[in-house]
Amino acid sequence: MTGALITVYEAFFKLAQDGHGAAQLNLAILTAKGDGIIQNNRDALNWAWRARLSGETKAIQVIEYLTAQTLPQDHESVAYKLRFTYSDQFERGNLSAAFRLGRVYNELYEPADIDNAFVWFSIASALDIKYAKAFRETVGRDLTVEQRTKLQVDAQAMTTQWCIRQADEAPKLCQNVIMAGS
Question: Do 89 and 134 fall into the same domain?
């Protein structure tokens, strides 16, 4: 049995890095228990949120438990880390990371950062990411016409800049964004 949990942790870690939600949830549990790694509730919370943002509904209970076991500054640290992780993934061409960024701004920040959530859900909607339109409309329901218009312009500008950086790897959306801007 010696080292078995370390091997299990390593296997889940490789899958989790590739976005496998169940592996991310298992890492959260292993990290919270200190199995195969030093126990660390903040890191466990990070993995639980990653699992939740990957669609693992079982992560909700783990997040609730770990939130009670961590400090407010740990919650801020997890939000920052996830924002950085998903920004980097989006920049590298992982389009679903736009939707996850919207959720980070909406669900991990206290109070929710509605402006950034709306912008990222708008980008994810344009990329036809499942559920993004519903999330965009939900977070934007209390925006004034002026606020919504400004955030739409912000989303357009961010997408245009992102498309320029993507060069040959740009999705079809970029052709539409560039045509709309001309």
Answer: yes
Q: Same structural domain for residues 63 and 120?
A: no
Asked if the model's pLDDT at residue 96 lies above 50, the reply is: yes
The helix/strand/coil state of 108 is helix
Q: Which of 161, 111, 103 minimizes the C-alpha distance to 132?
A: 103
Cβ contacts of 73 within 8 Å, gap of 6 or more: none
Of the three residues 68, 87, 112, the one that is the final residue of a domain is 68
Cβ neighbors of 169 (< 8 A, separation 6 or more) are: 93
Q: Which domain holds residue 97?
A: 72-181
pTM score of the predicted model: 0.91
Distance CA 124, CA 43 (A): 27
CA distance 131 to 129: 6
Mean pLDDT of the chain: 93
CA distance 84 to 147: 25
How does 75-103 read in b/e, with b if 16+ C-beta sit within 10 Å? bebbbebbbebbbebbeeeebbbbbbbbb
